[in-house]
Each structure stands twice: as C-alpha cells, then as structure tokens.
Amino acid sequence: MRDRFIRPLAATVLFAAAFGVGVPVFAQDQGEINRQLLAAAKDDDQQSVVAALQRGASVDAMNRIGDTALVTACKKGDTAMARTLIERGANVQHANALGDTPLMAAAYGGFDEIVALLLAHGADPLATDRLGKTAMEYAAGQGQTKVVAQLLDAGIDVNRAYKNDLTALMWAAGYDRAETAQLLLARGANRSLKDNRGMTAKDIAVQTKSERVAGLLSAS
Predict the structure, then answer these.
(1) Which of 28, 53, 84, 149 yields a CA-CA distance of 20 to 30 A from 194?
(2) What is the rounded distance in angstroms from the CA atom of residue 165 to the CA atom of residue 193?
C-alpha cells in the first residue's frame, strides 16, 4: 500500500527534472528553497537560480530588506539573470523596504540594458522611493547619461519637477554631471526653472562647486 503513494511522487519529481517543470511545493521546504534562490541571485549563479525556481521557489521571494532576486540582479547589473527572472514572472514593480524598485536600482548603476528590459515589461519610471526619488533623479544624480536618455525616450518630461521642485538638470548640476547636463540641455531642459528655495540649476552648481556644470550653464 505504501508504494502506491511513494512511486507516484517519485515519478512526478523525475518528470519535473526531465522537463524543467517546477517540483511540487510539498516536496521541498518553501522557505529553504526561497533562501537558495536569493543566495544564488546574490552570487550571480544563474544556473542555481533556475534550479531553485524549478524546485518551487517563489520568484518574488524577499530577503530581510525586501529585495527580490530581480532587485538584486538589477543592483548587480546582471542582465541575463534579470531577463530570466522577468521571463519567469518576476514583478518589475516590486519595491523593497526603502521603496527601491528594480528600475531605480538599474538606473542608479547605469545598467542601460536592464533599464530597457524593465521599461519594455511595464516598469513605472515615475514610481518613487521612501525619499520621494524616482529613477530619473538617481540616474541624473549619478551621471548615468544613457539611462537619462532612455527615460526621456520613454516619455518623461525633461522639465518635470520632482520633490522640492528639483528637475533632472538640477540633480545633474548638484553632482557636477556635465555630460548628463549637456544631454538634458540638448533635449530642452529649462535652465531658468527654480527649486523650492528659489535656486536655478546654475545656482546649485555654484553652491556645490560643480565647476564643469556651472561653466556649461554660464555659456550662452
């Protein structure tokens, strides 16, 4: 009688292994499998990520700070892993405990291939984190010019004001990101706009000793 229950389960596991189908959750400890998935993502081990998913790991399992495997892949710039996770249903809108989304993580790091992938799968470029910052602010502040261009191409207004009435040009000015500022100006950024303190991008550049951007904004 006992074999009637053991053999079907064994057959199911063998079938799953042979055809890449997820093993039933009851055959594994869910928490442990999820930990294996997250550890594999952290270690850039795509083969183990796929194996964990096949064993029934939740693609949106989170670590203690709320990062999913996709957020981790985006922070590390692992395009192949990000694509694999998205193809397997990862939530591109997921935000961790700080409100960071996969798009923000990729924008901060300047990983333009991942940014393109996320936008193509519906990532919201206007989502904000706990500080009220968006992917554009991270990209402009970090001087990730390619990502700034992608976000503009996705329909973001070059003169959009964010928290404290700061524009992308002001963020670039505050960190002396001259190449990014030059792109924003070429795409129509208004250098006369003021933040909630009454400061223009040039004022911010002068205040922060961002000499390259200050010079750029001083030019006619």
Answers:
(1) 149
(2) 9
Distances (CA, A) of 188 to 136, 177, 183, 192: 16, 17, 9, 12
Domain that holds residue 59: 30-133
| Residue 47: count of CB within 10 angstroms of its CB | 8
Residues 55 and 115 in one domain: yes
Whole-structure pTM value? 0.85
Q: How far apart are CA 170 and CA 155, in angstroms?
A: 19
Over residues 146-184, the pLDDT tens digits come to 999 999 999 999 999 999 999 999 999 999 999 999 999
Has residue 114 been placed in a domain?
yes
